[in-house]
Amino acid sequence: MVISDLDSRIVQILRAAYADSTWKNIKVGVKRYMNFTSSYALVPFPASTEVLLKYLSFLSFVLKSPDSVRNYLSHVRTAHIWLGCETVNFKHDLVQIMLKGLKRFQKHQVQRAVPVTPDMLVKILQHVDLVDREQIIAWTVMLVAFYLFLRKSNLVPDSRDFLNAVHVLFHDDLWFTDHDILFRIRWTKTVQFAEREL
Questions:
Q1: Three-state secondary structure along 52-86?
Q2: What does the mean pLDDT of the chain come to?
Q3: For 137, phi and psi rounded to 5 degrees?
Q4: Cα 143 to Cα 4, 121, 155, 182, 184, distances in angstroms
Q5: Closest Cα partner for 52 from 88, 106, 25?
Q6: Sign of torsion, CA 54 27 185 195?
Q7: Mind listing the pLDDT tens digit for each residue in 82-126?
Q8: What is the pTM of this model?
Q9: Choice between 152 and 50, residue whose per-residue pLDDT is larger
Q10: What structural domains and CATH numbers belong to the chain?
């Protein structure tokens, strides 16, 4: 083993700290920050308190949710960590006060999706053609998702490029007995690293 093997391993382990979807979000956040600093001729790294305040102000115009603003700021902080830049300005009193002020200033109300209820399922069933194989499969997927409290990402991939055998249920994850069907679930929002199976 040579020193470059150790360096390579460090990068692999650090990258494993976040899910692929989190890395995608970080890239989007950093790109927006870089575009912002470029547009206003500001120095992006290390970010001064003044630049961070201006960025928060900018985000308040383009994002509705104060939580989204906080996430974008976190992405920039992560980039600072990866680049070895100082992050003390992210905890500066004015930055923290501005984040607090955004909660009052923007007053965003989260729009939650209406939950699926048993009554809804009964109404949907009235429109399912129980002779059509594809409709039966779709109906079965709905029932499995409902009764196992699964997310869409457990049942279907986001795209063909993102077909992850750990995230999505496959035929090998089902066992049929005389009276039951057993499901192996290896990924949920809270179990992302297959540290246990459900």
A1: HHHHHHHHHHHCCCHHHHHHHHHHHHHHHHHHCCC
A2: 86
A3: -65, -45
A4: 50, 8, 11, 14, 16
A5: 88
A6: negative
A7: 999 999 999 999 999 999 998 888 776 666 778 888 999 999 999
A8: 0.63
A9: 50
A10: 3-106 (1.10.150.130), 118-183 (no CATH)
- Max CA distance (Å), the chain: 69
Beta strands in the chain (DSSP E): 174-176, 181-183
Of 143, 115, 114, residue with least CA distance to 128: 143
Is residue 3 helix, strand or coil? helix
The tokens for 33 are: 């920050």
Structure tokens at 188: 């949920």
163-169 contact pairs (CB < 8 A, 24+): 164/20, 166/194, 169/144
Instruction: Please tell me the predicted confidence (pLDDT) of residue 128.
Output: 93
Cβ-based neighbours of 121, under 8 Å, separated by 6 or more: 142, 143, 146
Q: What are the tokens at 126?
A: 């009235």
